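Exercise 7. Predict the joint structure of the components listed below.
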Amino acid sequence: MSHSTSAQNVPMFEIENLHASIEDKEILKGVNLTINKGEVHALMGPNGSGKSTLAYIIAGHPSYEVTEGSIRYYGEDILEMSPDERARKGIFLAFQYPTVIPGVSMANFLRMAVTNVRTAKAEEAAANGGTAAKFTPREFRRLMKEKMALLKMDDAFANRYLNEGFSGGEKKRAEILQMALLEPALAILDETDSGLDIDALRVVAEGVNNLAGPEMGILLITHYQRLLNYIKPDFVHIMMEGRIVQEGGPELALELEEQGYEKLWAQIEEAQAR
Ligand code: ADP
Ligand code: MG
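Solution:
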């Protein structure tokens, strides 16, 4: 890969003037967002503002049509890549994975998912004249144990069947463990639904706090300020009606909790009236 040689001044991940539609309805109306290694970004905004749409488009969901703008990863346009290729490049989206696969244990599922990415990396490295080791099952077990210890997860969790009877917290635990194993460069977590109970919230927060580091950029999508009581983002972006309407540091999330979206709605209406 060309990352380290040619990427000095190129942002890791850059969305520029992104417009996107579904069934001819424009949802994203010019989104700009840049994420670099080591940064934690929170994307907030009321329901229906387009946050999940953005996540789906980054993942390569086929239902959405990008009509204008670009998404670049180390300068490379990812819009032409398959979801799989994006994953192999190091973009991780927590929700793109299957919800229930009958009879597959967590350990086996994760080994397949991680091996898929690692094998592709090894092949790519080999094609470029380098080397990168593939995993043996034993190595995978060791790595998984290590990551589970880091995340303070019970060993028995690995032997559970995927998502079968998982609580909200356990589903989140599975996602966070997968993220830990894949060691993505960019992790996108869409914490959408009201089903996020305290346990799930804690799992996500602890996971992100344990895994965030200088090598990873994180985009945390939520409309809950309370998640940000546990995770301190470096940057907060507020999306409304398909655009990022305000940006700032962690204080912005607190402001938003106090003031709600009222003031921003008023500003949007004022701008539209002009
Ligand atoms: P958020 O995640 O911020 O709550 P979404 O991205 O889910 O917002 O939705 C943004 C807008 O796109 C909403 O108005 C929603 O109704 C619309 N939308 C999302 N998915 C579809 C779809 N499959 N078909 C039609 N409209 C959709
Ligand atoms: Mg959403």
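Discussion. The chain is about 40% helix and 25% strand.
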